[in-house]
TrEMBL record, chain A:
Entry protein name: Translation initiation factor eIF2B subunit beta
Record GO terms (molecular function): guanyl-nucleotide exchange factor activity; translation initiation factor activity
Protein's UniProt keywords contain Protein biosynthesis: yes
Keywords attached to this entry: Cytoplasm, Initiation factor, Protein biosynthesis
GO cellular component: cytosol; eukaryotic translation initiation factor 2B complex
Subunit: Component of the translation initiation factor 2B (eIF2B) complex which is a heterodecamer of two sets of five different subunits: alpha, beta, gamma, delta and epsilon. Subunits alpha, beta and delta comprise a regulatory subcomplex and subunits epsilon and gamma comprise a catalytic subcomplex. Within the complex, the hexameric regulatory complex resides at the center, with the two heterodimeric catalytic subcomplexes bound on opposite sides.
From TrEMBL, chain B:
Subunit-structure text: Component of the translation initiation factor 2B (eIF2B) complex which is a heterodecamer of two sets of five different subunits: alpha, beta, gamma, delta and epsilon. Subunits alpha, beta and delta comprise a regulatory subcomplex and subunits epsilon and gamma comprise a catalytic subcomplex. Within the complex, the hexameric regulatory complex resides at the center, with the two heterodimeric catalytic subcomplexes bound on opposite sides.
One Gene Ontology term of the molecular function aspect: guanyl-nucleotide exchange factor activity
Name this polypeptide is given: Translation initiation factor eIF2B subunit alpha
Top-level division of the source organism's lineage: Eukaryota
Subcellular location: Cytoplasm, Cytosol
Protein family per UniProt: Belongs to the eIF-2B alpha/beta/delta subunits family.
Organism per entry: Thermothielavioides terrestris (strain ATCC 38088 / NRRL 8126)
This protein's UniProt keywords: Cytoplasm, Initiation factor, Protein biosynthesis
Predominant place of localization: cytoplasm
InterPro entries: eIF2B_alpha/beta/delta, elF-2B_alpha_N, IF-2B-related, IF_2B-like_C, NagB/RpiA_transferase-like
A single cellular component GO annotation: cytosol
Automatic annotation (TrEMBL), chain C:
Region (Disordered): 1-26, 726-752
Compartmental location: Cytoplasm, Cytosol
Keyword Glycoprotein tagged: no
Matches recorded under Pfam families: LbH_EIF2B (PF25084), NTP_transferase (PF00483), W2 (PF02020)
Subunit structure: Component of the translation initiation factor 2B (eIF2B) complex which is a heterodecamer of two sets of five different subunits: alpha, beta, gamma, delta and epsilon. Subunits alpha, beta and delta comprise a regulatory subcomplex and subunits epsilon and gamma comprise a catalytic subcomplex. Within the complex, the hexameric regulatory complex resides at the center, with the two heterodimeric catalytic subcomplexes bound on opposite sides.
UniProt organism field: Thermothielavioides terrestris (strain ATCC 38088 / NRRL 8126)
Name of the protein this chain belongs to: Mannose-1-phosphate guanyltransferase
UniProt entry keywords in alphabetical sequence: Cytoplasm, Initiation factor, Protein biosynthesis
Family annotation (Gene3D superfamilies): 1.25.40.180, Hexapeptide repeat proteins, Spore Coat Polysaccharide Biosynthesis Protein SpsA, Chain A
Keyword Cytoplasm among UniProt keywords: yes
Compositional bias segments (type: Acidic residues): 727-752
Domain W2, residue spans: 552-736
PANTHER family per record: TRANSLATION INITIATION FACTOR EIF-2B SUBUNIT EPSILON
UniProt feature, compositional bias: Gly residues: 1-12
Length: 426, 313, 752
C-alpha cells in the first residue's frame, strides 16, 4: 500500500471533492470549521466560499429571489463570521448576492416584456402607502433587509420616497409567485451557478492576469524589493523575469511550512528567478532600511483592500511600506479585485490577528514561556497614504478609483453584510 | 435645516391651488429663492430645497424615463399629481425619516468608536452626539471624549452636558489646544464632526474651526487617526466651491477677511446685519482631509459623494 | 481476535495470529479510527469530579472533551469510540445534545461516534481489553484520553507508523510525545510524575520506560542491560506524555494477554518493553518539537493548559476561534477575550483573561490571568488573579481570589479572601467576610466523598454559607507510617499549586532531587555508567546522573529501607523495634546483601543527624546531633551494631565507617567542613557506644577508599584529631573524652 496516499488531515481540496456528496448544511459547517481551525486561510478562503455558496444555490430550497438571497446571506455571514480577519469571504458573498440580484432583474425585465398584460397580477401585492392605485410594477425587488433592521438604499430621495422605509418590510412586495416564475427559478438557479463559476474563474485567473502587467510595472535594471512574496507576487516576479532583466531583493521570512525549515527562505522562488536570469538577494528584515535607498520599487501582496485604500497584509509589510514611503519609493500592492472590501477596516483589523507565540519562542523554553507574554501579530494594517499603486487584475489603479471599482462589483444593498456581522447575533 | 426647508415648501405647495405642473414648479422656485435670500447662510436650506424641487421635477419626466434606467432602488416614480399629493400627505413622515436617518447614522457610526480610545469632536452636532451615545450604550466599549468648545457655540455645551449625563467621560478644550492635544493624546483615533452641508465634491462647509481640526488631524504626527463626518444624505448640496473665498462663492454671506476692511471703509450697517454672526461663520474643509462620511446609507468615501449626486440627478 | 483470556503464554499466540489480521488491516486503511478514554479512574480533580466527569469540566469555558474531539476532527478521524466510566450518562448526554458531535448529526465531522460502556471496568486496562473483545478496530487507530488538548497534525507520525508497520509487523505502537526542553517548565512541573523514556534516537524506538516523581526517596533509574546492548540511546525525561498513541490492533491483544495491566504507561508500556524478548513487540516514539499537546490530567496541568490557551500556544484552540457552537469570543484590550453581552464596567480592569457570555464585572474590580465562565456576577472592587471561575458564580464586593478554582454556581460573599490553592466545588455558598485558610488551602464541597451531602461547616463557610471541608481520602498518612515508598505521587497532583510543602519530605530527600545519587551505588559503577551513557549517546535528562548497578541489585530495597528508618528515627515515640522488624522484612523480601544493608543504615542515620543540624529541627551542634541521631531511640545502637556493622571484624567496622563517610558526602545541603565535623562526631559517638572499635576506625583511616577524591578527603581530614587521639590514648579514654570534645568545638569555631 502506497504510503503516499491518505492524508487524513482535512483541507480545501478534500472539501471541494466531497462537496457534492455532502448535505448542504454539512458542507457549510465543514468549511466553517476549516476556517476556524485555520486549515483554510488566505487566498483559499475566496475559492472555498465560492464553492460552498454554489452548493447553497444548487441545493437549498427556494422559490423566489428573496428566499435565495436570504439563504445565501445567512450562509455567507456564517462563513464570514467564522474568520473575521479574512474579509475576502464577505466579498465573495457580496459578489454572489449582487450576481443574484442582477440575474433576477434581467429575468424580470424579460418577464415584463413577455407578459406585459399579465402584470396586473403583480399589483395584487400588498399595496404601497400611496392611496392611488400603484402605477407600473417596480422593475426590481426593493432591497431586502434580511439580517438587520437597517434600511439601505442608494438614492438621496430616500427622505421623500413613497416606499415605506423601515416600518414594514418591503420584501415580498414584488415577488408573488406566478407560474412563469416557478419555471424561471430553475433558469435562475443555473444562471446564478454559472455566474459563480465565472467568479471562480476570476479568482483562479487573477494571479495570472496581474502577472500580465509585470512588464509594464517592472523596468529593465530595476531593483525590486519583494516583502514576503505571496503566491501572487511570486507569479508576478517570475512572469516579469521572462521579459526583463532586473534584481529582486527578497525580504522577510517565509512563514509557511515547518517541513522546509532547513531550506533557506524562498529557495524555490529564487531558483526559478535565477533560472530566468534574474538576480536575487535575500535580506533579513533588519537590513531593510539599508537597502531601501537602492531600491526602485517595493512590491507585496495584500490580504484585503478596504474602501479607504487601507490594506490588510501579513505582518511586517508595514515596515517595508513605511520605509519606502520615507524614501519616496513607489509601493505597489498586488491585489485582485475580489480582495477589495466595500467597508472600512474595523478595530479588529487595526489591532491585527494574534498568531501562535511559538513563531518567536519555543514552547520548550520553560523560563521564557513562564516569564514572557509573547504577542505575535500576524497581520498588519497599512494606511492608504503609504500605497502608491494598487495593481489589480483589471490593471493598475490609484486610491481614487477604488470607489468606482467597488461600485462596479458590489450592490449597495449588500454592503450591510458588514454591519450584520458586527451586530453579530446568530 | 434642510428638512425645515422641505416642510416650508410643502406648505407653499398646500397653499398653491392646484394648477398645471409647470406653474406649480414656478411657484416653488420663487418661494425657494425667497427662502434662500432670507438667511446669510442659505446652504443648508438649499440642500433641502433642491431635493424637494428635483423630486417634483422628476415626476414631470415621468415614469418611462425611470423604467429604462432601472437603477433607482426603493422608489417608484409617481405622476405629478400623485407626487404632489404624496408630499402634502406625508410631511410628518419626512421629519420622522430624517430622525430615523440620524438613528441609522448612529448605528453605523458607533462602529467607528473603539474601545479604550478617545474621540475628539467639536461643533455640537446632534448626529455626533447620537453616535457617541449609541456607542456608550455598548457595555463592552469604554471610550472617552474630548470636546472642543469655544465658549460661544451653545450647541456644544448642550452636547457636552448630554454626553456627561450619559456617564461618558468628557473633557473640554478650547480651540487653541487642538494641536497640543492631538500631539499628546495618543489614544485619539477618531475625530468626528457633524456638518450642515456636504458639497458634491465631498468637501464640507461646516462651523468655523472644522477645517483647522481636519488639517491638524492629518498633519500632527503619531498614530493612525481618522477624520469622519457624520451627515445625512439629504445634506448633500449640488455645488462645488472652487475659488477663494470658497464659502462666499457658494452663497454664504460672511465677512470676507481678504478685504482687510478695518481701515478707512466703514461697512454699511445694513451689510453687517446681512452677514453671518461671527459665532455662526463657516469654513470649507477639503475632501482630501476627510476619511469618510457616515451616512444613513453606510460609510462613504469622499469620492463616493459625487456618485450619489449622480444617482440623484 | 480469539485469545482474550491470555495468561503469560498468550504472547506466542499473538504472534501467530498476525497474518490473519493483516487483511482486515488494509481493507479499511483509509478510515481513521480513534478511541477516547473518557475516564481515567483517578480522583485528582476531586471534589469537582464528584458531580461532573473530568472531561466535561470547563477549560477556558469549554468542556475539555471538546478540545479532544476537535483535535480528532482536525486530524481527519472518521470513526470515534468513546469509553466512559464514571458519569457516563452525563458524557453521553452532553455529546448527544451537542449540535456538532451528536452521532446522528449531519454536521458531525465523524462518520460514526459510539459510546461503549463497560459495567465492571476498574481501570483503563479493562477498557482496552473490552475493546479487544469487540473487534471493532479494523486497522491503525489513535488512542487518546478525554482530556487532551493538542493542535498537532498527526499526518507525519501516522505515515511513519505505517511505514514501520509495513517494514516490520512487530512495530505496533507509536507514542506521540512533546519535548519541553531541559530547563524548568511549567508543564513539566505540573505533570507530577516524570516519565522517563529510553529511546533510540535514530529510529525513535522506545527501549525502556520508567516513572519518577519527587516523592520517591531514591532518585535513580536502573537501566535494563538490554538497553546497553542496543547501541545508541537517549534517556529523556524532558517529555510531556500527551497520551496520544497510534496503535495497531495487536496492541489490544497485548492488553488482553496481560489481564493485570491497568495503566497504559506505568504497567503496559513498562511491562511490554521489559518483556520484549518474550513478545517481540516494538514500540516507538514520535517526539515533537513544535505544536502543542498536553493532557489536563491534574489540576496543575489544568492550570497550565488554561494559561497556554489564553496565551495562544494552542492556536487554533483559542477562545476567539469560537470552535464551540454559539460561542462569540472576541479579543478585547488588555490581551483578554470576552463574549457578547459581557459587561465590564468603567473602572474595572481585565487583563489576559477570558470572560464568558453574560458575565458582569463591576467597577473597581481587577481580573488578571483568569478565566471567568458564563453569567457570572463579579462585584465591585473584587480582585481575581490566576483563578478559574466557572459558570454562574457570584462573587461579592471587595472579595479577593488568588490562584483558586471556584466552580459553577458558587456564591462567594462580600469581603472574603480565598487564598492560593483553594478549590471550591459546585453550589457552595460562602458568607460575607470569610477568610479561607491558606495552609493547607481549603477544598470545600457540598458533597462528601461518598456522594452524600456533607454537613455544613459553619466555622468554615459562615452562618449563611453552605458546604464543608472536603476530606481527601488518600493513603497518604497510612502509607507514611507503613513504608515511605508507597507515598502516592497523586498527592502532588491533586492540588492546584505544585508544592512539596506539608508533605513531610525530609530535607535530605529534596536535596537528593538534585544529584546526590552518587551514593546510590558504588562509585566506580556509577562513573562507569555515566561514561557509558556519554559514549552511547547524549543523556538528555533532568536527572543529573543515573545509576546502573547489576541488574539484579534490589534498589527498591535501599529506598524503602532508608526512608523507613529515617521516619522511625524522626518519630516522637520511642519505638524503634517495629522499624527494625520492617527493615529485616524488607531485607528478606529483597534478598539484600550485607553491604546494601550497611549502606542503607549508614545513610539513614547520617540523614537524620544531618537533618538535626538544620534550623527546622533544632539546629543542634554536631556533637549533640550525632548523639541524638544514634542514641535517642532505644535499640538503635544495638541495631547498628548488629545489623549495620554486622560483625566484629575490623574490616566490617571499617566498611561501616566508610559507608557513613560516603553518606555524609552525599548530603547536599551540608558544607564539607561541617560534614567533616559531623563525621568526627559520629565516629566518636559510635566509638563511645561501642559500635566501632579503635581498630575499626584506624582501619578505616588507613583505607585508601576513604581518601578517594577531594570530597572524601576533606571529610577524612576533619577526623585527624580523633584518630590521633585514638592512636595516642590507650587507657585514659574516659578522662580525655571531655578534652576531645573541647577540641571539636574549637575546630568548629575555626571553620566559622
Amino acid at each position: 500500500m502506497a504510503p503516499s496516499q491518505a492524508t487524513h488531515v482535512p483541507n480545501l481540496d478534500n472539501l471541494i471533492k466531497s462537496l457534492n456528496s455532502l448535505p448542504l448544511e454539512a458542507s457549510i459547517e465543514s468549511l466553517i470549521f476549516l476556517l476556524k481551525r485555520r486549515q483554510v486561510t488566505g487566498d483559499e478562503c475566496a475559492k472555498a466560499t465560492a464553492h460552498v455558496l454554489r452548493q447553497v444555490v444548487a441545493k437549498s430550497k427556494w422559490n423566489d429571489v428573496d428566499q435565495l438571497l436570504s439563504r445565501v446571506q445567512s450562509a455567507g455571514s456564517r462563513l464570514a463570521r467564522a474568520a473575521p480577519l479574512e474579509p475576502v469571504i464577505g466579498n465573495i458573498v457580496r459578489r454572489v448576492l449582487g450576481l443574484i440580484r442582477d440575474e433576477a432583474s434581467e429575468d424580470r425585465n424579460v418577464d415584463d416584456l413577455a407578459s406585459e398584460a399579465a402584470s396586473d397580477i403583480q399589483s395584487l401585492a400588498p399595496s404601497a402607502p400611496s392611496p392611488q392605485k400603484a402605477a407600473p410594477a417596480p422593475v426590481r425587488p426593493p432591497p431586502t433587509v434580511v439580517s438587520t433592521g437597517l434600511q439601505v438604499s442608494k438614492s438621496m430621495f430616500n427622505l421623500l420616497s413613497v416606499a415605506e422605509t423601515g416600518d414594514t418590510p418591503v420584501t415580498g412586495a414584488s415577488t408573488p409567485l406566478s407560474q412563469a416564475q416557478t419555471a424561471s427559478v430553475h433558469a435562475l438557479r443555473s444562471e446564478v451557478m454559472d455566474g459563480i463559476e465565472e467568479i471562480l474563474d476570476e479568482i483562479n485567473q487573477a494571479d495570472d492576469q496581474i502577472a500580465g502587467f509585470a512588464d509594464i510595472q517592472i523596468h529593465p535594471g530595476d531593483y525590486v524589493l519583494a516583502y514576503q512574496p505571496s503566491r501572487t507576487v511570486e507569479r508576478f516576479l517570475v512572469k516579469a523575469a521572462s521579459k526583463r532583466r532586473f534584481t529582486v531583493i527578497i525580504a522577510g521570512l517565509e512563514s509557511r511550512n515547518h517541513d522546509a525549515i532547513t531550506e533557506p527562505p524562498y529557495a524555490a522562488l529564487r531558483k526559478r528567478l535565477n533560472a530566468a536570469g534574474v538576480n536575487t538577494i535575500n535580506l533579513a528584515s533588519n537590513g531593510l532600511m539599508a537597502y531601501i535607498p537602492r531600491v526602485n520599487k517595493v512590491i507585496f501582496g495584500a490580504k484585503a483592500v478596504y474602501q479607504n485604500g487601507g490594506l490588510l497584509v501579513d505582518s511586517g509589510c508595514c515596515i517595508a511600506a513605511q520605509a519606502a514611503h520615507e524614501y519616496l519609493k513607489p509601493v505597489i500592492v498586488l491585489c485582485p479585485v475580489y480582495k477589495f472590501c466595500p467597508e472600512d477596516p474595523s478595530d479588529e483589523v487595526s489591532r491585527g490577528e494574534l498568531g501562535n507565540p511559538s513563531s518567536y519562542v519555543s514552547y520548550a523554553d520553560g523560563p521564557e514561556v513562564d516569564a514572557l507574554e509573547v504577542e505575535n501579530t500576524v497581520t498588519d494594517y497599512i494606511p492608504p497614504e503609504l500605497v502608491d499603486v494598487y495593481l489589480t487584475n483589471l490593471g493598475p489603479q490609484t486610491q481614487h478609483h477604488l470607489a468606482s471599482i467597488l461600485a462596479d462589483h458590489y450592490k449597495t444593498e449588500d454592503i450591510t453584510l458588514g454591519l450584520a456581522l458586527q451586530l453579530g447575533e446568530p | 435645516m434642510g428638512v425645515a426647508a422641505i416642510e416650508s415648501l410643502i406648505e407653499v405647495l398646500r397653499a398653491t391651488p392646484s394648477s398645471t405642473a409647470m406653474e406649480t414648479v414656478e411657484v416653488v422656485r420663487k418661494e425657494k429663492a425667497k427662502l434662500l435670500a432670507s438667511t446669510p447662510n442659505p446652504l443648508p436650506l438649499l440642500a433641502g430645497a433642491d431635493l424637494f424641487e428635483q423630486y417634483l421635477l422628476r415626476s414631470l419626466r415621468g415614469p418611462t424615463a425611470e423604467g429604462s434606467t432601472g437603477s433607482s432602488a426603493s422608489d417608484r416614480v409617481l405622476s405629478f399629481e400623485q407626487t404632489r399629493q404624496h408630499l402634502l400627505d406625508n410631511k410628518q413622515l419626512f421629519a420622522q425619516r430624517a430622525k430615523m436617518a440620524r438613528d441609522n447614522i448612529a448605528l453605523w457610526g458607533s462602529r467607528y468608536v473603539s474601545d479604550g480610545r478617545i474621540v475628539l469632536t467639536a461643533g455640537g452636532s446632534r448626529t455626533v452626539t447620537k453616535i457617541l451615545l449609541r456607542a456608550a450604550a455598548d457595555p463592552s466599549k469604554h471610550f472617552k471624549v474630548i470636546y472642543v468648545v469655544d465658549g460661544r457655540n451653545r450647541r456644544s455645551d448642550v452636547a457636552v452636558a448630554q454626553l456627561r449625563a450619559a456617564g461618558l467621560e468628557v473633557e473640554t478644550i478650547s480651540p487653541h489646544k487642538v494641536a497640543y492635544v492631538l500631539a499628546n493624546q495618543k489614544q485619539i483615533n477618531l475625530v468626528l464632526v457633524g456638518t450642515e452641508v456636504v458639497m458634491q465634491n465631498g468637501g464640507i462647509i461646516s462651523g468655523m474651526g472644522t477645517a483647522q481640526l481636519a488639517h491638524l488631524t492629518k498633519t500632527v504626527k503619531g498614530g493612525i487617526r481618522r477624520f469622519y463626518v457624520a451627515a445625512e444624505t439629504h445634506k448633500i448640496c449640488r455645488k462645488t466651491p472652487i475659488a477663494y473665498p470658497m464659502v462666499n462663492r457658494v452663497g454664504v454671506r460672511q465677512k470676507d477677511v481678504s478685504k482687510f476692511d478695518n481701515i478707512g471703509v466703514d461697512p454699511a450697517p445694513d451689510d453687517a446685519a446681512a452677514l453671518l454672526a461671527e459665532q455662526d461663520e463657516v469654513d470649507y474643509t477639503d475632501p482630501e482631509l476627510i476619511d469618510g462620511f457616515i451616512t444613513e446609507q453606510g460609510v462613504k468615501m469622499a469620492s463616493a459623494i459625487w456618485e450619489m449626486v449622480d444617482v440623484y440627478l | 481476535m480469539s485469545s482474550k483470556q491470555g495468561g503469560k503464554g498468550g504472547a506466542a499466540a499473538g504472534k501467530a495470529k498476525k497474518p490473519a489480521k493483516a487483511g482486515t488491516d488494509e481493507k479499511r486503511e483509509d478510515v481513521l479510527q480513534a478511541v477516547i478514554l473518557a475516564d481515567s479512574f483517578q480522583d485528582r480533580f476531586k471534589p469537582f469530579t464528584l458531580e461532573t466527569p473530568r472531561c466535561l469540566l470547563p477549560l477556558v469555558n469549554v468542556p475539555v472533551i471538546e478540545y479532544t474531539l476537535e483535535f480528532l476532527a482536525s486530524n481527519g478521524v472518521q470513526e470515534v469510540f468513546i469509553y466512559c466510566g464514571a458519569h457516563s450518562e452525563s458524557i453521553e448526554q452532553y455529546i448527544r445534545e451537542s449540535l456538532r458531535w451528536s452521532p446522528g448529526s449531519i454536521l458531525s465531522p465523524f462518520s460514526s461516534l459510539e459510546f461503549i460502556r463497560v459495567s465492571d471496568a476498574h481501570s483503563i486496562g479493562d477498557f482496552l481489553r473490552d475493546l479487544d473483545k469487540r473487534a471493532i478496530i479494523a486497522g491503525d487507530f489513535i488512542l487518546v484520553h478525554g482530556d487532551l488538548v493538542a493542535n498537532i497534525q498527526l499526518d507525519a507520525a501516522l505515515a511513519k507508523h505505517r511505514a514501520r508497520r509495513e517494514a516490520n509487523r512487530d512495530a505496533c505502537m507509536t507514542m506521540v510525545l512533546r519535548s519541553v526542553g531541559e530547563q524548568p517548565h511549567r508543564a513539566a512541573r505540573a505533570r507530577g510524575i516524570t516519565p522517563v523514556f529510553v529511546v533510540d534516537p535514530t529510529t525513535g524506538r522506545c527501549l525502556q520506560y520508567e516513572e519518577t516523581h519527587p516523592l520517591q526517596s531514591e532518585h535513580h533509574l536502573v537501566l535494563d542491560p538490554a538497553v546497553f546492548s542496543h547501541g545508541e540511546f537517549e534517556i529523556r525525561s524532558d517529555l510531556i506524555d500527551c497520551g496520544i498513541d497510534i496503535c495497531t490492533p495487536d496492541i489490544l491483544a497485548l492488553w488482553s494477554e496481560s489481564f493485570d495491566y491497568e495503566l497504559p504507561r506505568k504497567n503496559f508500556l513498562h511491562g511490554v518493553l521489559k518483556d520484549w524478548e518474550l513478545n517481540g513487540k516494538m514500540l516507538f516514539t514520535e517526539i515533537l518539537d513544535d505544536g502543542y499537546a498536553a493532557r489536563a490530567s491534574n489540576l496543575q496541568m489544568y492550570d497550565c493548559i488554561s494559561k497556554d490557551v489564553l496565551e495562544r500556544w494552542t492556536l487554533p484552540f483559542v477562545p476567539d476561534s469560537n470552535l464551540v457552537h454559539g460561542q462569540t469570543y472576541r479579543r478585547i484590550k488588555g490581551g483578554s477575550y470576552a463574549e457578547d453581552h459581557v459587561v465590564i464596567e468603567r473602572g474595572a480592569k481585565v487583563t489576559q483573561s477570558a470572560l464568558g457570555r453574560g458575565t458582569t464585572v463591576q467597577t473597581g474590580s481587577v481580573v488578571s490571568r483568569s478565566v471567568i465562565g458564563k453569567r457570572c456576577k463579579i462585584g465591585k472592587n473584587v480582585r481575581i488573579e490566576n483563578s478559574y471561575i466557572w459558570d454562574d458564580a457570584v462573587v461579592g464586593d471587595g472579595t479577593s481570589i488568588f490562584h483558586s478554582i471556584v466552580a459553577g454556581s458558587v456564591v462567594v460573599g462580600a469581603n472574603c479572601r480565598i487564598p492560593e490553592g483553594s478549590l471550591i466545588s459546585f453550589n457552595v455558598h460562602l458568607d460575607n467576610g470569610i477568610q479561607l485558610p491558606s495552609k493547607p488551602p481549603a477544598r470545600i464541597s457540598l458533597l462528601s466523598d461518598e456522594q452524600q451531602r456533607a454537613e455544613t461547616d459553619v466555622s468554615l463557610v459562615g452562618k449563611g454559607g453552605k458546604g464543608a471541608l472536603y476530606q481527601v481520602v488518600t493513603e497518604e498518612e497510612e502509607s507514611d507510617d507503613e513504608d515511605g515508598v508507597k507515598r502516592d505521587p497523586a498527592i502532588l497532583q491533586s492540588s492546584l499549586i505544585y508544592s512539596l510543602e506539608g508533605l513531610n519530605l525530609s530535607t535530605s530527600s529534596i536535596s537528593t532531587l538534585a544529584s546526590e545519587d552518587g551514593y546510590g551505588s558504588d562509585d566506580e559503577i556509577s562513573t562507569a555508567a555515566s561514561l557509558q551513557g556519554s559514549d552511547f549517546g547524549q543523556t538528555r535528562d533532568r536527572l543529573s546522573s543515573f545509576a546502573s548497578d547489576d541488574a539484579s541489585k534490589p534498589d527498591s530495597f535501599h529506598a524503602d529501607a532508608v526512608s523507613g528508618l529515617v521516619d522511625a528515627l524522626r518519630a516522637d515515640d520511642d519505638d524503634f523495634d517495629s522499624a527494625k522488624l520492617e527493615f529485616m522484612g524488607l531485607r528478606l523480601a529483597n534478598n539484600a546483601s550485607d553491604s546494601a544493608m550497611r549502606r542503607a543504615i549508614a545513610v539513614a542515620f547520617v540523614r537524620r543527624a544531618a537533618e538535626l543540624l538544620t534550623p527546622p529541627h533544632g539546629a543542634l551542634e554536631p556533637t549533640r546531633a550525632a548523639e541524638r541521631a544514634l542514641a535517642a531511640k532505644a535499640g538503635a545502637v544495638k541495631f547498628i551494631r548488629e545489623v549495620g556493622v554486622g560483625g566484629d571484624s575490623v574490616a566490617q567496622q571499617a566498611d561501616f565507617a566508610l559507608a557513613v563517610q560516603k553518606a555524609l558526602l552525599a548530603v547536599k545541603d551540608l558544607e564539607p567542613a561541617r560534614a567533616g565535623t559531623l563525621l568526627a562526631a559520629l565516629l566518636q559517638q559510635l566509638y563511645s557506644l561501642d559500635v566501632l572499635e579503635e581498630d575499626g576506625i584506624l582501619a578505616w583511616w588507613a583505607d585508601e577508599r576513604a581518601a578517594e577524591g577531594e570530597g572524601m578527603n576533606k571529610l577524612r581530614e576533619k577526623c585527624r584529631v580523633l584518630v590521633e587521639w585514638l592512636e595516642n590514648a590507650d587507657e585514659e579514654e574516659s578522662s580525655e573524652e571531655e578534652e576531645e570534645e573541647d577540641d571539636d568545638d574549637e575546630d568548629e569555631e575555626d571553620d566559622d
